[in-house]
Amino acid sequence: MTLTSRRLISLALTALVATPLAAFAQAQRAHVHGQVRLEVAIEGPTVVIEMQSPLDNFTGFERAPRTDAEKKTADAVVAQLRAADQLFRIDPVANCKLGPVTLRSPALGLGQAEGEASEGHADLDGTFAFNCTNAAAAKFIDVGLFGAFKGPRQIDAQIASPQGQFKRSLKRPAERLAWSK
Ligand SMILES: [Zn+2]
Question: What does pTM read for this prediction?
Fold first, then answer.
């Protein structure tokens, strides 16, 4: 067996092993314009919302801003997402206050996005943490992303709360992400 053929077999084996995982990661991190993915984790006194979204949903472009108008758009988007208690209005019974917000979008010069950068596409991801006096009592979040931005058409959410695990989808213009039984 030549070295080359050995290498080919080894590559083929690697591909066989890697493909299902890659497919899984792809499904987890699908980049679909119009779609926003949210993972809501309610644990102890905190509600943490992880958001994955194509940058296009917020800005209408997926690269660094080029013109003054694009720069303005990008700055406005970042400001809106940082004021996350306006976009994610948690059930008042939980009595939550916005904590740290981390935004990730290399195209906008903000940290490292989790999704793989694919040719011509870019993400804007975020982590929004809230501190609450009664987090476990929360049964809904009113999500203002449809009202604030033109791009998102569907929000796919997973909620992990003391009441259980839930999957919910919101289609424009619905706002209430509810998981009460
Ligand atoms: Zn894209």
Answer: 0.82
| Distance (Å) from CA 54 to ligand 1 centroid | 5
Structure tokens at 37: 């993915």
* Same structural domain, 24 and 39: no
Measured CA to CA, the distance from residue 31 to residue 179 in angstroms comes to 25
Ligand 1 midpoint to CA 38 (Å): 17
Residues spanned by the domain of 12: 1-30
Write the CB contacts of 66 (distance below 8 Å, at least 6 apart in sequence): none
Q: Average pLDDT of the chain?
A: 87
Dist CA 92 CA 66 (whole Å): 41
Number of domains comprising the chain: 2
Amino acid at residue number 7: R
| DSSP 8-state secondary structure symbol assigned to residue 65 | -
Distance in angstroms (rounded) separating the CA atoms of residues 145 and 117? 23
Same domain, 57 and 86: yes
Residue pLDDT, tens place only, 132-162: 999 999 999 999 999 999 999 999 999 999 9
Query: How many Å lie between the centroid of ligand 1 and the Cα of residue 58?
Result: 11
